[in-house]
Amino acid sequence: MQPGAYSVIAAALLRQRHLEIATNNLANASTVGFKAERPVFDLHQTEAPADEIRPLGGDLVRQSRWAATLINYSGGKTQHTANPLDVSIVGDGFFVLQTPEGRRYTRAGQFALNGSREIVSADGFPVLGVEGRAIRLPAGDKIVIGQTGEVMVGNAVAGRIRVVDFPKPYKLFKQNGAAFSTIDPREEGTPVAAPQLVQGSLELSNVSPISEMVALIETARLYEAYQKIFQSFDSMSDRAVNDLGRTQSIA
């Protein structure tokens, strides 16, 4: 195989991963609280032994490699709704969900009530209060969620929504949808003393569909270009094998 083919294959695989990320961002452009991801590449060059001669230059051993996948934690646009259980956070912080796999953290405040009248996320996971338990609402008509998270039904206080934050830059694992987990399950964040919540409001996805479409098209074209370059290398190898060893009669 031509030496440069390895670099082309490596670059094509990275673009394939980039396509997957851009596609996932686009698929979640309407997911409440979703945070877009961005791939980061760098250039890796292997060191050749001092006595190794590379007549075509060291550039042939340079390869792009995956450096990281960064999460854009910036806030998405907010949308006002008529649902009293829709809540958005102004500024930093995350809601806390209790899942079978442990606590999850999210800015998706599209809540509802389950059969036990507990406040749950769109996926059905209990939303924790400041005491670390699910918030169960008594029967009543009007639900009011105050700016600092107090949940009231009529004149009765049912609990207070827990909002936590983590040191920046955030080191969180992205889970399904708009939820995150911590590296160490024992790390549960620091409670925000005076969160600012807005009832009847949702933080939307921060994905820019136009930017993602542009990235998708550019990456797809690059991937196709790498395929053509690799086909050229393959053709050169075929000619080397089939033509160079062929003898011709001298007239």
TrEMBL record:
Domain Flagellar basal body rod protein N-terminal: 15-35
Biological process according to GO: bacterial-type flagellum-dependent swarming motility
Superkingdom to which the source organism belongs: Bacteria
Domain Flagellar hook protein FlgE/F/G-like D1: start-end pairs: 89-153
GO cellular component labels: bacterial-type flagellum basal body
Domain Flagellar basal-body/hook protein C-terminal: 199-242
Keywords: Bacterial flagellum, Cell projection, Cilium, Flagellum
Main location per the UniProt record: other
Subcellular location: Bacterial flagellum basal body
Family: Belongs to the flagella basal body rod proteins family.
Protein name, per record: Flagellar hook-basal body protein
